[in-house]
Amino acid sequence: MSAPWPFVSRGMDVIGPIEPATSNAHRFILVAIDYFTKWVEDKTLKSVTKKAVVDFVHLNIICRVGIPEVIVIDNGSNLNMIPAEVEILSLRIVAEVEIEDDEWVKTRLEQLSLINEKRLAAVCHGQLYQKRMARAYNQKVHPRMFEVGQQVLKAHPSTQRLKRRASSPQIGKGRSL
Predict the structure, then answer these.
(1) Distance (Å, rounded) from C-alpha 130 to C-alpha 122?
(2) How far is 69 from 7, CA to CA, in rounded Å?
């Protein structure tokens, strides 16, 4: 089978049951292939359930490349639980289902407000993280005040290595204590 462009049509099937089961007791492999690019997505499963198949389709197909126009299955008993409709309201689905514009706008605004809430929560989390890091850093750093004309010893990076070697003597390769 072929497709006119990438990620338009996918084929799905289940391989299994596999005997003996794998070390983590998985006996089935759920496979989806893009007919244009021949890109394969797969997942091992203990059992083929509706939730496992829906999660696979959502995470490995829809979230990565969008909603394909066609998912081809062989109508076997192992994949007859795939839902025929996806509950993601895109403009294409709105046009096909003929949802009223007011209802669609309302749901989109609710989704956008949830996105803003999550964004604000992420910003707050980031600020708290920065405060914790600054507090941890400030506990370890001891500020020192220097005056003009005061002599200070500047440590060179090569002398730091020598100090570390001298403080922890090693035995071997001709060295002795």
Answers:
(1) 12
(2) 8
The DSSP result for 61-128, as a single string, is IIHHH---SEEE----TTSTTS-SS-----HHHHHHHT--HHHHHHHHHHHHHHHHHHHHHHHHHHHH
Q: Tell me whether strands 9-15 and 70-72 are parallel, antiparallel or unpaired.
A: parallel
Tokens of 76: 């076997």
Contacts 24+ apart (CB under 8 A), 51-58: 53/79, 53/81, 53/82, 54/82, 54/83, 56/30, 56/32, 57/12, 57/32, 57/82
Q: What is the pTM of this model?
A: 0.44
- Is the Cα torsion angle 72, 73, 75, 80 positive or negative in sign? negative
Please, is 53 exposed, middle or buried when counting C-beta atoms within 10 Å of its C-beta (0-12, 13-18, 19+)? buried
| 13 secondary structure, DSSP code | E
Place of tokens 């929560």: 121
- Which pLDDT tens digit goes with each residue over 18-55? 888 888 889 888 899 888 888 899 999 888 888 888 88
Q: Report the C-alpha gap between 117 and 78 in whole angstroms.
A: 40
